Amino acid sequence: MKIEKGQKLLFIGDSITDCERARPIGEGLFGANGKGYVALVDALLQSVYPELGIRVVNMGISGNTVRDLKARWQSDVVDQKPDWLSVMIGINDVWRQFDTPFIPDGHVYIDEYEATMRELIFATKPTVKGLVLMTPFYIESNPDDAMRRAMDEYGTVVRRIAGEHGLLFVDTQKAFNQVLKELYSATLAWDRVHPTQTGHMVLARAFLKAVGFDWSRP
Amino acid sequence: MKIEKGQKLLFIGDSITDCERARPIGEGLFGANGKGYVALVDALLQSVYPELGIRVVNMGISGNTVRDLKARWQSDVVDQKPDWLSVMIGINDVWRQFDTPFIPDGHVYIDEYEATMRELIFATKPTVKGLVLMTPFYIESNPDDAMRRAMDEYGTVVRRIAGEHGLLFVDTQKAFNQVLKELYSATLAWDRVHPTQTGHMVLARAFLKAVGFDWSRP
Amino acid sequence: MKIEKGQKLLFIGDSITDCERARPIGEGLFGANGKGYVALVDALLQSVYPELGIRVVNMGISGNTVRDLKARWQSDVVDQKPDWLSVMIGINDVWRQFDTPFIPDGHVYIDEYEATMRELIFATKPTVKGLVLMTPFYIESNPDDAMRRAMDEYGTVVRRIAGEHGLLFVDTQKAFNQVLKELYSATLAWDRVHPTQTGHMVLARAFLKAVGFDWSRP
Amino acid sequence: MKIEKGQKLLFIGDSITDCERARPIGEGLFGANGKGYVALVDALLQSVYPELGIRVVNMGISGNTVRDLKARWQSDVVDQKPDWLSVMIGINDVWRQFDTPFIPDGHVYIDEYEATMRELIFATKPTVKGLVLMTPFYIESNPDDAMRRAMDEYGTVVRRIAGEHGLLFVDTQKAFNQVLKELYSATLAWDRVHPTQTGHMVLARAFLKAVGFDWSRP
Amino acid sequence: MKIEKGQKLLFIGDSITDCERARPIGEGLFGANGKGYVALVDALLQSVYPELGIRVVNMGISGNTVRDLKARWQSDVVDQKPDWLSVMIGINDVWRQFDTPFIPDGHVYIDEYEATMRELIFATKPTVKGLVLMTPFYIESNPDDAMRRAMDEYGTVVRRIAGEHGLLFVDTQKAFNQVLKELYSATLAWDRVHPTQTGHMVLARAFLKAVGFDWSRP
Amino acid sequence: MKIEKGQKLLFIGDSITDCERARPIGEGLFGANGKGYVALVDALLQSVYPELGIRVVNMGISGNTVRDLKARWQSDVVDQKPDWLSVMIGINDVWRQFDTPFIPDGHVYIDEYEATMRELIFATKPTVKGLVLMTPFYIESNPDDAMRRAMDEYGTVVRRIAGEHGLLFVDTQKAFNQVLKELYSATLAWDRVHPTQTGHMVLARAFLKAVGFDWSRP
Amino acid sequence: MKIEKGQKLLFIGDSITDCERARPIGEGLFGANGKGYVALVDALLQSVYPELGIRVVNMGISGNTVRDLKARWQSDVVDQKPDWLSVMIGINDVWRQFDTPFIPDGHVYIDEYEATMRELIFATKPTVKGLVLMTPFYIESNPDDAMRRAMDEYGTVVRRIAGEHGLLFVDTQKAFNQVLKELYSATLAWDRVHPTQTGHMVLARAFLKAVGFDWSRP
Amino acid sequence: MKIEKGQKLLFIGDSITDCERARPIGEGLFGANGKGYVALVDALLQSVYPELGIRVVNMGISGNTVRDLKARWQSDVVDQKPDWLSVMIGINDVWRQFDTPFIPDGHVYIDEYEATMRELIFATKPTVKGLVLMTPFYIESNPDDAMRRAMDEYGTVVRRIAGEHGLLFVDTQKAFNQVLKELYSATLAWDRVHPTQTGHMVLARAFLKAVGFDWSRP
Q: How far is the CA of G49 from the CAs of A181, A215, C180, F103, in angstroms?
């Protein structure tokens, strides 16, 4: 298990991360970590490794793109002084190109996406003990679907940056693809984006595998 | 224009038809026809052919399958004594097979679908002056998508029944396909089923073309 | 069809335009264009001309007079950089003279109306590719009704300005008059001002005729 | 003053009478008489003639026609054993013919109106000490307006029945006409039917004049 | 009738005046004058003297004492430029001494009351065409009741100031006393302060008598 | 202390007893005993005599008269099998005669009050171990006030019945009178009926004195 | 993994099971399985074993004791025809003895508990393919706490019955005890009964271990 | 009785004190003192000593620690100029160490607690006529429970400071312990912190004993 006793683990991202977390800081009792994969990661860490006392903080905000993350990076990441940081962003960067194609103001194209991600990761890496990059995803089994294809390209950017910096990498699309072999996408998310509890468990499990979590410990 | 002065035109179907219509009867002022294609058809008929005084009635109920239609056919169709009847059903019959595949109670397979449709149409045709069959649809451009393929098969059943009885036939899937050449499905419906106003206008226009509506009359 | 590929079409006006549009900018998914004629124009443009990708923006605000439009013209029109602009204002300018006759603060008399309209149109015309002026209206069939007569005079001002500048002109009163020959005003609007869906379709159709929209294209 | 000490005065009618009165019986404290002319009559009687202790009961129901009154006459009039009865009905009988002309189910034409009124009045007159008939009204100054003309005809029926039975008669249309000489209809009612407080005071004053109320007594 | 054509009549006071009036200015349609005596005065003036077009404005605020009136006199009275002004204040000045006797911060004793009233009236009288002073009241028939006795003393102050300046004077306590001979106080106000509609009509009638209103004009 | 270990103590009455108690049975956690004197008695018994485990049940219903108690006596008293019963009723029996004097249906005059009380007490006394009669009260210091005088007469009935049967008797009016020497009635209840927490403590203390409660035990 | 392809797994119990599940049947999309351990079991089964298509149904009802389960066993267990059944009941049976000790009606003592459990299990075992008994629990680390001690005795009953019938047995108290070594009870449940997400994950993991679930499968 | 005529008694603390008191100042009618022990103290003082007119003010704020008290001491204590001050704080200082052990930001350890208490009491003592220190408490009967043990230590700090300054001291833990001998903690507070009405009465009685309150005075 890579995360150590007493460390603070902060998740940043969009609505998949947010899931009705508490404001301004998503941590503590009464569902402060929201209802998504962050809450599941928290529950799994606390129940299986109660002696570690890992402090999970959720700073996701619905609708965010990487451009929005940059705007609030200082207050919502740097100032929080996390030991571990997990970043999952990009779904809205792509989605807006497909659901409101005539409103370019909301589109974040791949060059801006890559440059901003690099900038944020480069600046933050020295300050944290662990950094996890999770790809954006699209719960669609057809790799030739136009939006799935675009999302895969953004995922490739994430993989490349993780590789260059030697960061932990979570391929969420691959995790979903495995389930999509058995289940039609509508079972996991009516809009192919916002997962059911099952979909969030797919994300939580993919994250935890990357950090060496062991479910079967006594 | 095939619908004549003073005739009553009744729409029956599922949530695409329902769209928050008034209960128990969906007709009259204050949005009683709901917010979907039925309301658009009503507005187009009233504004372009005000002298005809066509009475539009919406009897859609969200979540319905053809099995549900059969159960309420007497009270919601026959007893209403429509001159014209339009039927669009089948989306939920198919969808439940894909979004809750482990709960077969909610699935209506194609044999039951065809038999029930035949039974209802056969019984009703002699009592009305006009009968329009609209196919179910799936706002997905990939014809090899599993759920789209199933929906196309249900649509083929509708086409066949319309052909056998010489009924007016509206191929809603074809109407959507034409738009999907230009727009990604997420622009028209986040869940590929419940359309935006644009999607409802596609349906209204397809219906009105079938009944000889002329937008450009003075 | 006069509006071209990728152009932005902005509507400004009062509650007839507003109709619960999104704030601060009325554009995008989830009914952001409101529930009135603007949403119908948007749905008709997107469904019949999906390849054009016309961007429809609704900036109506309920209760506005031309005096209010002037106060927010910079932020709500100029700064939005529309290619096409449609203006329909004047109903409240007249109505307040009739429903609260003892409160002159809210009355905008015809001289101020004309001067302000001229000022706004004169300043804006050079910056847009198309400009549509729609008259205010009153859904009352009696041309001798006091408020109808006043509204007609304001409409005449709009017609005159459109003529002088060679702008597209939409006579909404005339469009309603045609329907009022067949239907009593209460069918179209309980207060003779806020139309039902049918009334909004009358407005949408009148607008679209002016810009060369062709419903019957394949 | 015709109403005597301790008598019960019951008003029956439609939404103009109802005005959010208490259910099932509209009498007592806490606004139980609603917010319309009945409450004003009650307040004027109690404040000017406190020694009479007249018991005012409101049995109006919104949307009612004379057909609805007949259906509930036994429980809502006869069983209440009023000493005085005031009836004002007919607006919806006429209105439905004009706002939903294609739905004849809701129309109550003049023959049914007259016959039902006669039947109810004939049966009730012997059981009460006083009976007041108030005409329906339409707050429209143009006597040639189609709906105003129809309403006047229904009013004529009321006048005729009152005359034949020697009942107290209140010409509410005439009372409104006098005010409409000075004020445009929109000042009194946005939909020309549901009055403002001023409009309700016109009704209360017309009623009270008929029963001999004297405002200026010490 | 002392108030003339086109004049603005402003009422200032406490919760008896306020009664849910519109903010920030209590005038116009949709019950903007509240539900109390001000709305009744407005309805009576408009219905009986429609040709005068008197503009009624309600600036009451619940809980106010004369100390509060002074604090907002400039914005809520002077800046509104009324032709006529009616003032009814003092109930809370007295009531707080009786319902929260241990919290002297909220008590306004009679010296401060008189001095403040004098100051406000003296400054305002030259700027208006008519000024009406209404006493505070307590709906309690026993003149020896401690709070009634105190209220009577404040009323005496109002009478004295009115006499000295030759202002119109309305003795609301006397008006209520007349009704209290017939009705127990609980019929008019559960808390002996906030009147029912009947109690508000007592106030409206007392006010209107003072300004020469004639109910019986044709 | 007269109430013994494990006994059930049931209170029946009107809104003074009810005070938002739980339905259908007012006992248990989460404020089930309401917010009035019953809850205070319960809290005092549990905190001072925790070893007795007295079970307090609140069966008050707002608006009740003795006539209403009779109608529900079987289900709400007898079927509950209390060891101790406390009855406080009569306020509404009197109040309705004063706040709605023209609606005799709601008045319960003193003969009916006495006869019904006798009937209920006579039938119930043999079935319980203790019976407490509390007078109705009116928080008005003037014994010549009309409603206070009437309430005192009803209280005298209660005293007489208690005396005849040798029941515990609580003179709530006397308890309030003692406080009213120091405080004006508005401090204890705005409507002279529904007490503040202080007024409910007056009731709780008067009750507890009657049953031998000792606050100062260690 | 003991549960096989296509089998239906039904959970019955109290509020720990219920957790806002859908009514009348807790299964399907949109959080129909509630927010507790049942939803977590469902999400873990679907995400790790998507090919099995296990149908999870939640029939918990808040506040239930074993007496309540018996009353609805036919409709909520037998009629649902589960392949696997999991039962966790007893917390309220014990809790009511401690939080409302004076209201014995709600207490289910250990003899009734054991007899009823035996009766239900005996009748149901032959009809299902798998049966899991989960103990009730109390999130209190002190085994000498009075309520913890009682809960342990009820848990012993469950263990005994499971042993006698050879059923799968889940010792939830033991699972919580392991976490309570590291965390104070308030971290897991403010009232020591209703767990946080972490506490529900403790339950889900304990259940899944019993049925052979393997988190680490590829 | 130590508190004298006309003195102001202010309570400051956390949610136990707050209990939905009015903002910004908790005093006056309509439950302004909240629903907890402060309201009970107020009701007992007013009902038993009405002639003293003691002014009770509640300045508790939910969630507060002694650190929060310090931050608002000037505005919420000093500026209110109380004659008597009662302080009960410390529950949250301890609780956060146990319910969110991984979030040290919210923990107030015993050294900071003691230093801050000393600072506040030292500064305030000269300005008031009476000062009461109430210990924090934990409604748990086991003195070896980890959180109970910690709370006892904070209570010892309070006792020590009271002793050094010769202040009135209320041992709330001891008061609860006496009741806990008879009742299980869940009867008094589901979370062992927020008391039922019974628990608040325990607090009120403990406070009143300290100030010499005599329940049995006539």
A: 11, 16, 65, 72
% of chain F surpassing 90 pLDDT: 97
Q: Token pair of E72, please?
A: 């907002």
Dig out the tokens for G217 from the structure: 């499968």
pLDDT tens, B133-156? 999 999 999 999 999 999 999 999
Residues of D in contact with B43 (CB under 8 A): none
pTM (predicted TM-score): 0.94
Each residue's pLDDT tens digit in chain C (218 positions)? 999 999 999 999 999 999 999 999 999 998 999 999 999 999 999 999 999 999 999 999 999 999 999 999 999 999 999 999 999 999 999 999 999 999 999 999 999 999 999 999 999 999 999 999 999 999 999 999 999 999 999 999 999 999 999 999 999 999 999 999 999 999 999 899 999 999 999 999 999 999 999 998 87
Question: Three-state DSSP class for G95?
Answer: helix
Number of domains making up chain C: 1
In a domain, A82, yes or no: yes
Sequence-distant (6+) residues with CB within 8 A of F103 are D27, D28, D55, F96
- Kindly state whether residue H94 falls inside one of the protein's structural domains: yes
Residue in F97, F99, F103 to test binding to D, most D beta-carbons within 10 Å: F103
Token duo for residue G102: 């004076």
Interface test with G, best of A30, A33, A35, A47 (most G CBs within 10 A): A47
**Buried/exposed D12-47: b ≥16 CB within 10 Å, e otherwise:** bbbbbbbbbbeeebbbbbebbbbbbbbbbbbbbbbb
Asked, for residue G218, whether it belongs to a domain, the answer is: no
Does the CA dihedral F65-F66-F72-F76 come out positive or negative?
A: positive
Neighbours of chain H (3+ CB pairs under 8 A): A, E, F, G
Within a domain: H51: yes
What is the predicted ipTM? 0.95
d(CA H109, CA H94): 7
CATH number for the domain harbouring residue A47: 3.40.50.1110
The single-letter DSSP state of residue H132 is E
Selected catalytic residue, list B15, B76, B86, B200: B15
Choose among H96, H123, H120: nearest CA to H107: H96
- For chain D, the farthest-separated pair of C-alpha atoms sits apart, in whole angstroms, at 55
* DSSP letter string, F97-144: HHHSTT-GGG---HHHHHHHHHHHHHHHGGG-SEEEEE------S-TT
Tell me which of B83, B107, B145, B194 is the catalytic residue.
B194
H or E stretch including C130?
A: strand C130-134
| Element at G152 (helix H, strand E) | helix G146-165
By residue range, what is the domain housing residue A161? 8-210
CA separation, residue H203 to residues C173, F44, F56, F199 (Å): 74, 11, 21, 20
| Three-state secondary structure string covering F159-210 | HHHHHHHCCEEECHHHHHHHHHCCCCHHHHCCCCCCCCHHHHHHHHHHHHHH
d(CA F107, CA F84): 29
Q: Which residues pair with E11 in a beta bridge?
A: E58, E86
Q: How far apart are CA D196 and CA E58, in angstroms?
A: 17
Residues whose CB is less than 8 angstroms from the CB of residue G74 and which lie 6 or more positions away in sequence, other chains included: none
Q: Which two tokens stand for residue A171?
A: 């391929």
The verdict on a CB contact (< 8 Å) between G191 and H191 is yes
The active-site residue out of F68, F83, F141, F194 is: F194
Separation between Cα atoms, residue A60 and residue A13, nearest integer Å: 4
For G67, counting Cβ atoms within 10 Å of its Cβ (0-12 exposed, 13-18 middle, 19+ buried), the class is middle
Q: Cβ separation of B27 and D99 shorter than 8 Å?
A: no
Closest by CA position to E154, among listed E173, E136, E179, E175: E136
